[in-house]
Amino acid sequence: MEHFVQEQSIVRKIWGKSDTILFIFAGASAEFALNKAVDWLYFTGRLPHDPLGRLFSTVAYARAIVFSEKQAAFRAIDSMSAIHANVEAKRGQRIPDWAYRDVLFMLIDYSIRSFEVLERRMTLTEKNEVFYVFNEVGSRMGVQGLPGTFEEWQQMRKEHLHQNMQQSNLTEDLFEQYRKHLGAVRYAILLEAQTLVVPDRVRALLGYRKTSLLHPLLGVYKISRRLGLDWLLKSIVLPADYKKQIMDLDKLPRAHATA
């Protein structure tokens, strides 16, 4: 049976661990707040009302794609496209292709950055795998103007970061929602996690330091993982209402188990 992502792919290793996924969405949460198309995320009200719930619903789609056989992955992508089409119909506008590309580019970039922060440097072959998987998602969705190679993506990513990012009142509001839903301590941890993984352009716009306070603790955390104690640390810093969902990120999705 053909899978959308090969079983030995680095993409499955990245999206099969809760800590890597949490860093991916720490970075994306910072960048979403700066994106010029952030008003689309506010249109339905779901993101500001429940940013953590929105995170888990997005993760569910991404993992359904990564861990499914090919046709099941296509159905997940088509379902995602239908949801976006419904939002477009309600608003009477189309989401611009550059905004779709921005989201795909985030998934590529933060998959690589988060793995490298928590694990090791990736090879060019592995980076190409990440690029290919999410580029295929965009192609299936009918997104126009996608890059043809990883090298072309690198250049387009730089251009998008400079053209499509800005501070706005929605930036401030979204960060305030993060703080409200996480609490002061967890919110501070989120900011430090963002500092670890975001590109320089995002760091500059948000006024972040170049070095995160979490950086010296990464070695301790990696040792705790090898000793099986990482969940003791996670239980301290993660919201209690979402602990089960976060633990489930370390398990293969049902779509894969039934494929």
Output the keywords.
single chain, 259 residues, globular, disordered C terminus
Secondary structure blueprint with pairings:
Blueprint: H1 10-14, H2 18-34, H3 38-43, H4 46-49, H5 51-66, H6 70-91, H7 97-118, H8 124-141, H9 150-163, H10 169-182, H11 184-197, H12 200-206, H13 218-226, H14 230-237, H15 243-248, H16 254-257
Helix pairs in contact: 2-7, 2-10, 2-11, 5-6, 7-8, 10-11
Care to describe what's here?
This protein is an all-alpha fold. The protein has one domain (10-164, 171-257). The chain has 16 helices and no strands. It has helices spanning 10-14, 18-34, 38-43, 46-49, 51-66, 70-91, 97-118, 124-141, 150-163, 169-182, 184-197, 200-206, 218-226, 230-237, 243-248, 254-257. The longest helix is centred in the N-terminal third of the chain and has 22 residues, at 70-91. It is globular. The N and C termini lie close together (8 Å). The model is unreliable at 255-259 (pLDDT under 50).
The H-and-E topology, N to C, reads as HHHHHHHHHHHHHHHH
Q: Please work out how many helical segments DSSP would assign.
A: 16
Q: Beta-strand percentage?
A: under 5%
**Which blocks of ≥5 consecutive residues have pLDDT under 50?**
255-259
- Compute the number of structural domains: 1
Distance between the termini: 8 Å
